[in-house]
Each structure stands twice: as structure tokens, then as C-alpha cells.
Amino acid sequence: MKKKFTSIRYMFIRSHLYILFLTTVLLLSILLSIHVLFEPEWLTVQSIFLFAILYVLIAFVLSVYSGFNHAGKSLKTKLDSLSVLITQFSNGNYQSSIKFMEAEDDGDELSRIGEELNELGSKLQNQVKSLQRMADEKADFAKSAHKAAVIEERQRIARDLHDAVSQQLFALTMMSEASVKQFDKNPVLAKKQMKEVAEAALQAQTEMRALLLHLRPVHLSGDSLPTGIHKLMDELKQKSQIQFNLNVDNNLKLTDAIEEHVFRIIQESLSNILRHANATEVDVEIFKKTNELFIHIQDNGKGFEVMKDSKRKTSYGLKTMRERSEELGGTFIIRSNPEEGTYIDIRIPC
Questions:
Q1: Cβ contact 12:72 at 8 Å
Q2: Which CATH number is correct for 220-350, 3.30.565.10, 2.40.50.140, 3.90.1150.10, 3.50.50.60?
Q3: What pLDDT is attached to residue 1?
Q4: What is the pTM of this model?
Q5: Shortest CA distance to 262 belongs to which of 347, 161, 155?
């Protein structure tokens, strides 16, 4: 009820009644002044008050009628039309426009606002078309970039195979041949060398698993982020002796872009752990709080000095994870010390 009496029509009625009150007071003052000063016979106190009462009654009715049906109605119609148009714009319907009837379009301020809103709608519609055109161009560019990224990834994996697995297999071959030669001459030395062969074979196997992890699809293949990470963890549990602990909200809702980047970050971090950390336990925690996504990854591996070892092999993976986090507007923090494991904390606005 209170909101109703604050509408534009009642504002007009109150304005008219205020003018009526001032006019009545002014007329009474003038008439009473004439009566006191000149005392004309035709102007009596009774006639003054009779005139005032009739004037107030007639003016009150006319004020209410004029404010409710004429001026207030016209202005309310215009304001309602402008409000509907703004609502359409806020809902993304930029094709909407407003056109007052000839009786309403008298060139006042509200009519000019309506014309300016129509122009704004046209500009917004043109901007939407431009954005859609840019999106199409971006999609074409993404396809080309994807091809280039595939080639670059293949080259990187080929370098890793040559630098790591190939050299390890060569060393494995040399150690096994030396063990065979020492088998009859020095069984103790041969046994020691065979242990070294087993350790080298395990390291080569771990390195190969990490490289195979990179060959997984970059995208989630239609799965949600929690589902994709659960599948990744289950696969790694079957192929390694590391204990993986995952804590993620299965109802986590994120945009496709954030899900793809976060999945790739997790994939890269697990690959680094498999190849370099020599860890037995890994904890991954992903949760959303207010408007931020928090990612915490830690392992109990051998760790390293972050500043001193910035040029080691893990630096490429860490650089990639940092770039992906910053591309989403987030922050990437890594803490590690020798024999104290590694801790990664990522915060991404969403």
C-alpha cells in the first residue's frame, strides 16, 4: 500500500493539492485584507468562507482528476515503457525498441531518453554481432593453434624420450651386460649390479608412465572436472605404488575453460611427481569458496630448492602450470625444500 501511494500519479496529486493549499491561503489572506481595510458591503466574512469552501471542494476534485487521469497517466505510461525497454536490454534482447504515440511524443525529456535508448539498443546489437564474429574467428584460430600445439607436444615428448628413457635404457643395457660378465667371477658384485639394474628399470618405467600421462587427451572428453580427475587417479593407482588421496566436491560447477585448464594443471603436477619426486603419497584437494577455486597439491617426495633448481626438468612443467593459472586470472604458489616434499597452492577466481 505504501509503495502504491509513492507512484507517479499520486506524486502529481500531492503536487496539485499542495498548490491548492497555497492558493487557498493566499486568496483568504487577500479577501480578509480587503474586508478589514475597505469594508465593502458585498464582501462579508460569510461570503469569504463560502467562497473558500467552494473553491477548495471544486479544486480538490479537479486536482485529483487531473493528476490521476491526465498528466500522471501520460507520464506513467512513458516511464513504464522506458522501464520495460531497459528490462529487455538487461535480458539481452537488444532488438527491442520504444516508440511513443503521437499524442505522447511531444518532444519532452522522456521522449528524448526513449530515442537515446533506441540508439543504445542498436549499438549493443551491433556489438553482439561483432563479438559473435570474433568468437568464430577465435574458434578458427584455436583450431590452428591446436595443430601447432600437438606438433610442439610431440616434439617435447620426443626430446623427453631421448633425454630420459632412451639414456636410461642404454644405461640399463650396459649395467646388465656388466652384471652377466661378473656373474661367475664376482657374484657379490654381480648381485649389487643387478640391484642397480632393477632400480634403473623401475626409474625408466616411472618415466615412461609419466610420459604416457602426457599423451592422454588434453580435454575432459565430456566428463566433468571431478569425474575426470577421479578417472585419472584410479588409473594411476593401478599403475604405480604411490598412494593418491583425492578430496574434491563432486557437485563442483565450473566453466568449460576453467575445467580444462585445472585438469591440465593436475595432470602436469602428477606427471612431475611421478618423474622426479620419488614420493609415496600424494594429496590433491579441490574446493570452491565464495567466488574462488582453491587447488592444493602436496607430496612427501624428496623435494628441491625452488630458486636454486629453477633450471631442472621440472621447471618446464611448473612454468606451464603457472602460465595456465595466470591465464585464468589466478595465483600459483609453490613451496619445497630438500627432503620435505613439495606443496602447490593455486587460487582461481570463478
A1: yes
A2: 3.30.565.10
A3: 47
A4: 0.46
A5: 347
